[in-house]
Amino acid sequence: MTESTPPSESERASEAASAVLREYFATVDRVRKDTSVPASALDAVASSTQLTAQQNLLKSQRSDGLSQIGDTRIVEVKVESISLDNPATALIDLCWDVRGVDIIDSNGKSAVSPERKDVGWTRYTVTNDSWHSDPEDGWRVSGGADLEREPCAGS
Fold it and tell me: N or C terminus: which one in the chain shows less Cβ crowding within 10 Å?
């Protein structure tokens, strides 16, 4: 029997930050599709400028009578760096695919711009202000910036 080495703190942080990023996309899709899901659902997966941006977009879409159909597909997730300083921070590059997503008005007419990019890369900042006391569940997506990069494999 071989003993396995327990994951390092950086490996644990990488896995937890990647997991919350996946949950972030599922939550964003859910609140945009179902008006009965409160905007506060985003609080569990986002913080800082990312939370504000998503809340503002959701408020605008809901006041315009728009909703989402379909789900964002996560094609690839690549952890670029982990810092366990305070706050703990992960930079994660994620390739997304929204070809199966439409934003529709109350008549079912698409409100998506024909110029929308359907596949792309974004570098997300995922932070945990309570890393020492809550290393697993304290992670939140706090920022993001689109990357100029070739579409990911499998998209």
Answer: N
